[in-house]
Amino acid sequence: GGLLAIGAVGAPTVFRSGRSGAADVMTTIFTRFDRVAIALVLVALAAEAVGVVLRGGPLDRVRIARGALVVLFALGVAVQSGHLSPTIARMHREGVQRHVVAAGQEFDRVHNWSSRVGKLTVTLALAATIAFLLDRRGAAAALGSRSVDAANTSQ
Question: Whole-prediction pTM value?
Fold first, then answer.
């Protein structure tokens, strides 16, 4: 959700202010956010791995789908923070301006890809979170029915 807030609210507001240094501010914000996104990906990947180990048993469709969503989320963050954001930051340091000559057109192309990947990554993270919540509800229901079955057989 943070990327959505930065991209949809923060960046347009900062750039519309017309203040010099707006691009420097946004470059710093996106660089910091990339670090946060990497940390979130590491937590999500670790949680998936721990969940597979602790729960054991066969992997059903929901668990496989959730794992795939987390991996795709991780790939999106890797592309964003490992290639797109650094490329934009480098071009900005070099003084490239959007829509100005060939370098500006390249900047615009990379920026548009960054926007697309960011939106896709947010969508994947949201979908993985929903799958996690649905799987927890299903797991809790399964555990509840197992405990009822165990109580009935012990009587």
Answer: 0.75
